[in-house]
């Protein structure tokens, strides 16, 4: 398919309404356009339905688990029902707990804090830093980047088989890469983990917004994701799964809400009995709006027919990949190769361009918001770039033709066809004709030079 075939009359179907779809932004070259938000992998726009549900609830807002008043009781019910909706969305098992956190990062740090003392942790070097860094260094075995899903399973099996002694172990793996968008063989990795007596947590930050996640069917022990990537940007996240390690450990945060009973001891100390429910790890006043927004997003995706959304996104991915393939100077980053199933997250470099310059020109000249950098997955991006890393240089061509960072375009359920069409056209024009404006580096970022 060539860029010329990306005519808007080839509409694949309708996106879900999101906030910001009509926002106009100025172009440095004059005039303005509707903003094309193509950075869903960082934070997705709120679904209109999530916003409407939150707005409808807002007047009834009240304290959770505390007040005797009507609105407190209503808010408590809403908060607890939100857990049930998330459990349904994730296909949780009987007895699984849904803990509301701040984000995926927070969820994985919470899990790290409850691991049995001698637990080994296995992670691939390809993980997002949120999944790579929360574990104590002495616990971690960092596995080489596999070049196929099969190699991922074999690498994990070898590492687990080699481990001594045979104590508790956790595998942490992403469902969809935040760099390549490629899907990881979660079910097979879970089977390998369990066969060797290990548990597994799925980092679904990039999977959940694009693809149904089913804890039971994939047989993972925990799932973590963030509301702001799932069209619910109200500061909440989720850790869902097995209750035992969560309930055997000390609370993640100590304080009200996590404690069932607190007594002043005769010796002057304080004695506490902690909750044995999700509340154990939710000390302090819960973020009821954040939790409700996530539940509203889960419901909206479920009711919109997730299968249809996946199909639509697949067509958008095909359009973007075909459009990029038409530009020989573009190299798309991939670990698992051309045919790997993926979500709408695509990273690439452009020969002769500094990625920061390219991303700045997409924004300033076309009104397109993408991201450039190493995407909080430094080891993976460096492996894919074949670069040792370093700071991105001044705007302009990368030194010695080597890219030190990449450009990432990402989209999802709210993306209209026109945004991906504009993006493909913009990439072609920038590569063929060059930027129409001058750029300079300010505080490490490439920006249009408006000083003249
Ligand atoms: C795969 C993956 N895991 C974890 C995270 C961390 O998410 P948050 O920043 O919401 O904690 C991200 C964020 O980009 C991600 O892409």
From TrEMBL:
Residue ranges of domain Aminotransferase class V in the record: 38-423
InterPro entries: Aminotrans_V_dom, PyrdxlP-dep_Trfase, PyrdxlP-dep_Trfase_major, PyrdxlP-dep_Trfase_small
Entry's Gene Ontology molecular function annotations: lyase activity
Any one Pfam family match given in the protein's UniProt record, by short name: Aminotran_5
Keyword terms: Lyase, Pyridoxal phosphate
Known cofactor(s): pyridoxal 5'-phosphate
PANTHER family named in the record: CYSTEINE DESULFURASE, CYSTEINE DESULFURASE 1, CHLOROPLASTIC
Protein name: Selenocysteine lyase/cysteine desulfurase
Organism: Streptomyces olivoverticillatus
